[in-house]
Write a structure and sequence with these properties.
Elements lengths: L2 H11 L16 H9 L6 E2 L7 E8 L2 E2 L3 E4 L4 E8 L5 E6 L1 H13 L11 E4 L4 E7 L4 E6 L11 E6 L1
Parallel strand pairs: 2-5, 4-10
Antiparallel strand pairs: 1-8, 2-3, 5-8, 6-7, 6-9, 9-10
The chain binds copper (II) ion.
């Protein structure tokens, strides 16, 4: 389901989340958050896993990732593999600070909301291995993280340096 429809459906169940079209930029409201979540082109684009030139495998446990920093090159298509060795669901997403700020807020407000519609992240149940491909198109400092409620705050995140 496209993200916007997902949000619209969620807004019915969570009225506080309904986007206010007049809120404008900087309001910190849902419409503002959604801009940060949908404009993924500012840090890259979905990649074709079959054309990935590099694979990064990250293990998740309760509650941590097995690595804290990644160095990538602009333009390389990276296949990110998440292996969940824990007993809880975990997520692996890539993005910039604004993306995670918005995404984490959304996950906290709507726990259990499936984010599989997003091309820059995956969710793995205990024992599952899942993957996605992403191409960082510009140099810069980014993050990978799990946005399950509380996990980011407990340190389930790492730095991605693209240069
Ligand atoms: Cu997690």
């Amino acid at each position: 389901m496209p993200l916007r429809l997902l949000i619209a459906a969620a807004a019915l169940a969570f009225p506080a989340f309904a986007a206010d079209p007049h809120a404008g930029h900087g309001g910190g409201h849902a419409s503002h958050d959604m801009d940060h979540m949908e404009d993924l082109a500012r840090f890259g684009a979905p990649g074709d896993p079959a054309k990935a030139t590099r694979t990064v495998t990250i293990h998740a446990r309760d509650i941590a990732f097995d690595q804290s920093a990644l160095d990538l090159k602009p333009g390389e298509t990276v296949k990110f593999v998440l292996i969940n060795d824990g007993t809880q669901d975990h997520e692996l997403g890539v993005g910039d600070a604004a993306f995670f700020e918005a995404h984490i807020k959304m996950m906290a407000e709507m726990p259990g909301m499936a984010m599989d519609a997003m091309p820059n992240m995956v969710t793995a149940k205990p024992g599952e291995t899942v993957s996605f491909a992403w191409t960082f198109t510009t140099a810069g400092s980014f993050e990978f993280a799990c946005a399950m409620p509380g996990h980011y705050e407990l340190g389930m995140k790492g730095a991605i340096t693209v240069k």
